[in-house]
Design goal:
Blueprint lengths: L8 H18 L3 H5 L4 H4 L2 H9 L18 H14 L1 H20 L2 H13 L5 E4 L20 E5 L2 E12 L6 E7 L10 E7 L5 E6 L10 E12 L3 E2 L5 H8 L3 H26 L1 E2 L2 E2 L4 H29 L12 H21 L10 H10 L7 H13 L10
Parallel strand pairs: 1-4
Antiparallel strand pairs: 2-3, 3-7, 4-5, 5-8, 6-7, 9-10
Helix pairs in contact: 1-5, 5-6, 5-9, 5-10, 6-9, 9-10, 9-11, 9-12, 10-11, 11-12, 11-13
Length: about 400
């Protein structure tokens, strides 16, 4: 995976390491793990530990904390490469990458010193962010935003949190969580929520059910349950009632990484379609010699290249906002990549004919994975609304920034 954005030797070395990791550690395990009935058995600590050994797990941490300090563009490339081996592994890592970036920007010096040294040394350290609830998720982008149902009441020395989050990536696996809850019930999640740092072993915080998903199974999603969970004042991140602005200001690349994950699945599907078209003989000649099939393979390539360019540009702008960043860049590239991947998935299935519907070819798994990001990290229709709101100024930006 090379293009005009791969400029330096360090980037090439990182991508070569990731490519080798995918080939040796991820690809051989992926089909077996995906087939487990219990969703918790689909997750692999062994893969996470191997990612730690080669420096992938902590790559977005600054060097002073033991990481590589890679930028958002390189991270997007890594996320895509991981997803060519397995989308779930890509999501486990992408969540950890982006949340580590948020923490480094939004944490106080005391919070950084308290969390990062132990996290950097923990070979099983992955991160999660809790926002989505059973009754709402992306409501802050609609014309009638609502408050989070999970709320925090001020008590002596801190806050008492009650409520439920669900669909949380790494929810049952994370060592540390960023949690968005309502602290001003008279306002909405866009202007009355607060972000808290929550440690895994904090009393009053438990893990609920682990969701049984159609695809993306190597990443666990789970419920987070809070019952009079005390969180001290020193765990407030970015200020009281500033939760939405923390995300807006410090996580512009969140959806970009989601786009990179589903793009990796599109690449894997395209590779399978090309390989099958060369092998499968129909009408006395390989499929690739049929004009219609060959043209379709080229169209798949176009969709992949265009999506990648959009994602890479958005990732670069996330770190260089002065060159034209606006909130559309944090929504549209993911929606484009998800739609492209779904189209490529259906075409790959059709090119394989009946064989594509059989699990033995591996296409069936990739189709299930491709479906995930029509919804995950924001339903595409909501992301279009988010971009439209930014374009036309119909809703205020949390925190007053793009």
């Amino acid at each position: 995976m090379e293009d005009m954005f791969v400029l330096g030797g360090d980037q090439r070395a990182i991508l070569q390491t990731v490519e080798r990791f995918v080939k040796e550690e991820v690809a051989p395990r992926s089909p077996v793990l995906d087939a487990h009935k219990d969703p918790q058995d689909c997750f692999s600590w062994e893969i996470v530990e191997k990612a730690h050994e080669v420096g992938i797990r902590t790559m977005t941490l600054a060097e002073k904390w033991g990481g590589l300090g890679v930028d958002s563009l390189t991270t997007a490339m890594v996320v895509e490469e991981l997803a060519t081996g397995d989308m779930g592994v890509s999501v486990v890592m992408a969540q950890t990458f982006k949340i580590a970036q948020i923490m480094q920007k939004a944490f106080s010096e005391e919070q950084q010193a308290r969390v990062f040294p132990a996290f950097a040394k923990d070979p099983r350290g992955v991160l999660a962010i809790g926002a989505t609830e059973p009754g709402n998720g992306s409501d802050k982008n609609t014309a009638q935003p609502v408050p989070y149902r999970t709320s925090a009441a001020k008590v002596t020395g801190g806050w008492s949190i009650n409520g439920l989050k669900h669909f949380i990536s790494n929810g049952n696996r994370a060592s540390h969580y960023l949690l968005l809850v309502q602290t001003d019930k008279t306002k909405t999640m866009a202007d009355g929520s607060t972000m808290f740092l929550v440690e895994r072993d904090r009393p009053g915080f438990t893990i609920g059910r682990v969701h049984d998903k159609m695809g993306e199974r190597l990443a666990n999603n789970a419920e987070l349950v809070f019952q009079d969970c005390f969180v001290p004042d020193e765990n407030v991140v970015g200020g009281v009632d500033k939760g939405a602005s923390v995300l807006a200001d410090f996580s512009p690349q969140s959806n970009v990484y989601a786009g990179a994950s589903v793009l990796g699945v599109a690449v894997a599907l395209h590779n399978k379609a090309v390989e099958w078209a060369k092998l499968r003989v129909q009408g006395g000649k390989p499929l690739v010699e049929h004009d219609g099939i060959r043209a379709q393979l080229a169209e798949m390539r176009m969709l992949i290249d265009a999506s990648r360019s959009y994602i890479h540009r958005a990732a670069w702008l996330a770190d260089h906002k002065e060159h034209g960043w606006d909130r559309t860049w944090g929504a549209l590239p993911k929606a484009m990549a998800a739609q492209a991947a779904w189209k490529i998935a259906t075409w790959c299935l059709e090119i394989h004919g009946g064989y594509g519907y059989m699990k033995e070819t591996g296409v069936e798994k990739l189709v299930r994975d491709a479906a995930a990001f029509l919804h995950s990290d924001g339903v595409n229709r909501t992301l279009f609304l988010k971009a439209a709101n930014a374009m036309f100024g119909l809703l205020p930006n949390p925190g007053g920034k793009a």
